[in-house]
Amino acid sequence: MAKPGALPPDSRFRLTREGGLVAAPGLMRPREFAWGDCRPGRQQQRLAELVDVARERATARPGRGDQRFFRLELFAGDDLTTPTEQLTIDETDAPPRLVALWEHGIPSLDG
Question: Could you say which DSSP state residue 91 is in?
Fold first, then answer.
């Protein structure tokens, strides 16, 4: 497990919502962004805090039954094929800021 708050400056992220009764890839709406997409200061701090909370709430067996879950994949640099870390968080345990990030992207880190 990574050190709290430790995010390399070349970090990239993919956030998807998965699961539920109907397997509909269009509803996953993956969001991909880089650490550098966030403004230094508040946005980067909130993203680092969000990753820490996701690490705390991650589960090895997400989405039981019809429950949805979020998958947060962390990548090093431009390699988007193999995540260096992958976190799955049940939708009911997801912090509101994670849901907002999936719904609205980086601007949600301002609110």
Answer: G
pLDDT digits (tens, 9 = 90+) for 4-13: 566 888 999 9
Distances (CA, A) of 27 to 19, 23, 62, 70: 10, 8, 17, 12
In angstroms, rounded to a whole number, what is the distance separating the alpha carbons of residues 36 and 88?
A: 23
Q: For residues 45-60, give the mean pLDDT.
A: 93
> Among 61, 109, 70, 60, which residue's Cα sits nearest to residue 93?
70
CA–CA separation, 62 and 49 (whole Å): 21
- Tens digits of residue pLDDT in 68-87: 899 999 998 777 789 999 99
pTM here is: 0.85
Q: Quick check: helix, strand or coil at residue 94?
A: coil
The CA radius of gyration of the chain, in Å to the nearest whole number, is 13
